[in-house]
Structure prediction request, 214 residues.
Amino acid sequence: MTTLGIIGAGHIGSQIARAAIGAGYDVVIANSRGPETLADLVAELGDRARAATAEEAGAAGDVVVVTVPLHALQQIPVEPLAGKIVLDTNNYYFERDGHIDALDRGLTTTSEMLQEHLPTSRVAKAFNHIQAEQITAGGMPAGTPNRRALATASDHADAAEFVTHLYDQLGFDTVNIGPLSESWRVERDRPAYVVRQNAEELTQNLAIANRLPR
Prediction:
């Protein structure tokens, strides 16, 4: 059985944990305050979950989800994630993260920044443009008309394929944007951000996105 290591236990991280356990995954989850502070969440999640440090969650995960504020990116452990698929849920909020010139000028993306920090991992964008509660409430069986779609992007085919499989398990179709350099199309202030859309609508919204939102 696949184990997800989840680094970040906020709204998105905890909801991914709930959804993944419901789909049969084991989960090892960490936050910045220590495993003991996750006792209530782990008790809720049940026997398939345990709390750990970020290093331990990274080491335990067959696949690792990084879901921390962008300003904490440099704190993500590198070696435990080496050789692994890593899912990046991040968005750039300058109000929270401070201004980052390369992002303000459209020279890079948050996922490319994580890939640069984790050069031996295979990063894929995932779960960044859906409200947290919809991760567990918005899924539908495969083939359902108007099924909600979510986007992914990666420079590694197997990482995008894993996200596609995980989305399907959780009840969502997938639109693959392409490389990480295109992942800005689904980030904050773009047409595809946190709106419910099927695959056709998501594809259209990605196409009309501006690199620098107006």
In short: The chain has a mean pLDDT of 97. Strands lie at 3-7, 26-30, 49-51, 63-66, 85-88, 122-125, 149-154, 173-176. The first strand starts at residue 3 and ends at 7. Residues 71 and 194 are 21 Å apart (CA to CA).
